[in-house]
Amino acid sequence: MKEIRIHGRSGAATIMAAHVLEQAALLSGYFAQAVASSGREAEAHATAVVRIYEIGVQSQSEAPDPIFVLVQDHTLLHSLGVTGDLPAHTRVLVNWSEVVTPTVLKGGQIVVMPATCMAEEFTGRQISNLALLAALITMTQLMPLAALQEAIAMHFRGEELQRNLSLAGIVARMVPAALWKESAGVGGESNTTIHSVLH
Predict the structure, then answer these.
(1) CA gap 162, 120 in Å, rounded
(2) What phi, psi does 20 have (nearest 5°)?
């Protein structure tokens, strides 16, 4: 079972990211579950947890020990509960407005990337969630990028869809592929081949 925790300022963007990742996992042949978490009132940010299973579905309790953490706003790094007391095996992906290209820190445990800047360039919107998902999938190899593209197509249409698909493709070429594959426990081919026709 893999756990991914997503933090953001916007509840809508955070929940959407969780559902897109959940749908991509389902398309890849996994069982998946996205759970919104209200968190502590003092945290003043939104949190969602996505669990991906080889078999079965477990409880909806808050994930205490995520393998991957996505932080949609680097200013949240100082918030209680975002990155505090994370175990050594957890990998953290951070949207950082001041970096120009994806940067690997702490021996690969942390990757920072300009997700908002990239989203604005390709989609005209300052929403980092899909860029971060494309980066996560590329670095973990948990599922094919085509599965993410199919999931994105469930939420967008027309020109907006094409812009988001372009964003995902560009991000996938920018981040270090398979950097976190071992952490994700991915050994072979993904569960399912995705046959995608996106127009």
Answers:
(1) 14
(2) -65, -45
In whole angstroms, give the CA distance from residue 65 to residue 136: 17
- With the C-alpha atoms ordered 20, 25, 28, 30, is the resulting torsion angle positive or negative? negative
- H-state helical runs in 28-157: 115-123, 129-140, 145-153
- Summarize pLDDT for 44-78 with one digit per residue, the tens: 789 999 999 886 555 555 555 679 999 999 999 88
Pairwise CA distance, residues 33 & 7, whole Å: 16
pTM: 0.88
Element (H, E) at 47: strand 46-53
- Per residue in 118-137, pLDDT (tens digit) is 999 999 999 999 999 999 99
Domain architecture of the chain: domains with CATH: 2-184 (3.40.920.10)
Are 198 and 153 in contact by the 8 Å Cβ rule? The answer is: yes
Of the candidates 84, 103, 93, the one whose C-alpha atom is nearest the C-alpha of residue 39 is 84
- Kindly tell me the burial class for residue 148, based on how many C-beta atoms sit within 10 Å of its own C-beta (0-12, 13-18, 19 or more): buried
